[in-house]
Amino acid sequence: MRRRHLDWGLAGRAVIVTGGAGAIGRAIAEGFAEAGARVAVVDRETAAAQAAAAALGGEGHEGFGADLAAIAALPDLVAAIEAQMGLCTVLCNVAGVIRRNADLLSVTEEEWDGQHAVNLKATFFLCQAFAARLIAAGRPGAIVNTTSQGWWSGGYAGSVVYNAAKGGVATMTRGLARAWAPHGIRVNALAPGLVETPMLVTPETTPEQVAALVAQIPLGRLGQPADHAGAAVFLASDLAAYVTGATLNVSGGFLMY
Ligand SMILES: NC(=O)c1ccc[n+]([C@@H]2O[C@H](COP(=O)([O-])OP(=O)(O)OC[C@H]3O[C@@H](n4cnc5c(N)ncnc54)[C@H](O)[C@@H]3O)[C@@H](O)[C@H]2O)c1
Q1: From CA 231, how far away is CA 211, in angstroms rounded?
Q2: Pocket test for ligand 1, best of 16, 18, 42, 44 (most atoms within 8 A of CB)
């Protein structure tokens, strides 16, 4: 029989998407649903997570409310998802927060801790809780983390603290990829660029400011949430069976190196 090269291999599999009620997370959850996966949408508010799961249509999607910064509860969260949906073999960490402060001399410990708790610490401990169950079950799986272009640039316009955490995510992704490769767990990251979501463009953002952002992007437009779905699904899928430790820029060419 002729070998098939283009099967995602995700049909029927249980996939966790954190931040799945947010802009990029919702688009990624839609991508997994289209690939036939059953999606566990995790977000801070239960109602929002459940509404996002219901909006995916089809069967088998569920919403789970959790504050990911409550680190000690993360193993119970993964166990609760597994009890409802079966063993999850894909984890996509999309939840994130930014608090811009361009006056670096005024950054507080609370600002630092708040961003690092969700963006970096929760990402690590959710990876840990997820991998623990796969390793115990002797099953392979895939993790996709979300970093940012600033993991490389260092950040701008007040995003230094945020990007210190996102740099940690990119570095940690490579370390986890090496550590868990013997267990068949691949770990990769997405690095979005300038994406038209409330995290970047607010009602106060002027057309001139948007134009200045677009001017930095070779493909000539801001990213859209949907631009990230294919990349996340690819990295999680069997099509990326030989890809681990990678950080994939999804940025219209904003960052090239
Ligand atoms: N928008 C951009 O330009 C951009 C650029 C680079 C990277 N990113 C990253 O992409 C990811 C998604 O960003 P987005 O633009 O869709 O933002 P968003 O605010 O629309 O989505 C983030 C989601 O994370 C959830 N979340 C935050 N803290 C949480 C917590 N403690 N517990 C549970 N859920 C929590 C929020 O409720 C929200 O639904 C983030 O990791 C972000 O850092 C975004």
Answers
A1: 26
A2: 44
Respond yes or no: is residue 162 known to be catalytic. Answer: yes
How far, in Å, are 6, 74, 131 from residue 136 at the CA level? Answer: 30, 17, 8
Question: What value, to the nearest 5°, has the Cα angle with vertex 62 and ends 241 and 246?
Answer: 25
3-state helix, strand, coil in the chain (%, to 5): 45, 15, 35
Q: pLDDT tens digits, residue range 16-36?
A: 999 999 999 999 999 999 999
Helix (H, G, I), strand (E, B) or coil at 18: strand
The pLDDT confidence band at residue 209, using thresholds 50, 70 and 90, is: very high
Give the tokens for residue 112: 């630092």
Which residue among 120, 126, 147, 199 has the greatest number of ligand 1 atoms within 8 angstroms of its CB, and so is best to mutate?
199
Considering the domain delimited by 14-250, tell me its CATH architecture.
3-Layer(aba) Sandwich (3.40)
